[in-house]
Amino acid sequence: MNSKWFGVGAALSVLALLGAGTAPASSTPRHGLPLGPADLTETRTTRTLQPGVTLTRIVRGAEAPALAWTVEMAIPGGATSPDPDAPPAALKDRASAAELAAGLRADGFDARAEEVRTPPVADFPGGSLGWRVRVGRYPAQAGANAERARLIAAGYTGSATYTGWDGDATDRGPWRIDVLTIDPRTFRGALKASYGPDLERRETTSALAAAAGASAGVNAGFFVLDPKAGAPGDPAGVGVYDGRLLSEAVDGRPGLVVRDSARGTRVERFTWRGSVTGAGRTLALDGVDRVPGLIRNCGGTADDTPTSLPLHDVTCTDPDEVVAFTPEFGARTPQGEGVEAVLDRHGRVLDVRSPRGVTLPEGGSSVQATGKEAARLTALAESGRRLRVDSGLRDGEGRPVATRGTSILNGGPELVRDGRLHTTPAADGMVQPGNPSFSYGWVHKRNPRTLAGVDDRGRTVLVTADGRGTDALGLSIPESAAVAQALGLRDAVNLDGGGSTTMVADGRVINDPSDATGERPVGDALLITPGRDRPM
User: Fold this and answer.
1) pTM for this one?
2) Enclosing H/E stretch for 353
3) Structural contact between residues 479 and 488, judged by C-beta atoms closer than 8 angstroms
4) CA pair distance 473, 369, nearest whole angstrom
5) Element (H or E) spanning 271, and its range?
6) Whole-angstrom distance, CA of residue 325 vs CA of residue 365
């Protein structure tokens, strides 16, 4: 456990999540988390950050013995593979895995082929994901690294990995989980999302918290990381901040909805539609505040390639798009071929420029168009004409979503619905046809996670689970759902995790971000501020 986490005199409690205040610490709570065998020790330590906000650290299996390190191989499509020209991957068919393992053994390596089976969830039947190949078992990472160097010298490709990250239900931990609980009955601050100075740049969760004077916060939605996928920092899905829709939904994927008052938190699935209208003619919008032609996580329109369905960590493309820009996007709109109509604060066209890329006038906005849509926007946007840009969300029932006093953050998959496990990696694009290695690494294996939801008492609950270490294993997606349910969440969703997972309290990062470089700059964060005045 990180000794800096609690100050002297911190209250100890196993009942705080159930609203029973504080009590003496216990190593065996009556209802422990559903991680590992039932006989594991578990401690819960709680303190109050401000009225209505508690922070609980849960450590389970702290005494667990170390597990083995191994080298996981990249498997090429072998001669017996259905697709012998396929690129190397962590999982392949049984024949390809067996062929690689046999070749490794012939070269003097202790290789084995293992089937990977995953549990069923709400929208995926589970079963066999494929076969992996591993070499050796080592008590420390140094041994696996040394064997990996030998493998590379022999012409193979692989990575050192800790077997505790595999997701085996018999593993004994350890797990380290932090939980923020916001009770709207006594909370007098504000619960808001922040993206920082502008959408297109990234900031750390701790920097966003400091700028807002927040007492606590967590990283939030998925975002663009690679400039080839868009503007780094731009939300990769729905984003509503201070009631303004600044990023369109990945069609049909879930988002976390929170009000400034922390009342009425919910998980909802969203669709989105937008348009620009002038002189009686209308063009459909493809997006808001993102690089035209690049749709991160897909879920856009029918003409997007390769799909209009959600496809996580994939950038779909569309050469013919219309995208609206707000002043919040950044110092300058994206540059490139196409046209851009620059609007003043009243929607009047000030200029139509080609190529794209301008500094917006104060309070102004713009609309960009590429490909076939460029001529249509040019015809619509004569100088001096007023254009009306409309953009709105709809819920799963097709009803318009009111956003005043609201933040909405993109996430996925869903984890819990109406108190029941309801995990949806297939619908949300994390189970990808023809690419079982993605689901293996993203859904099946343990990683750092950030989760959020609401319990039956209307309390907002924010959770981080450290991972990618030997002292904190992380959670698989099915384990994440089970933990959310065990914490009493009625509805819950997965937020961005991995190296993004960060929790801040009282001006400090209190978890252990997994990136080697330390805390990762992210796209946005969900922050708890101690202000006295807030809307109801």
Assistant:
1) 0.93
2) strand 349-353
3) no
4) 46
5) strand 271-278
6) 6
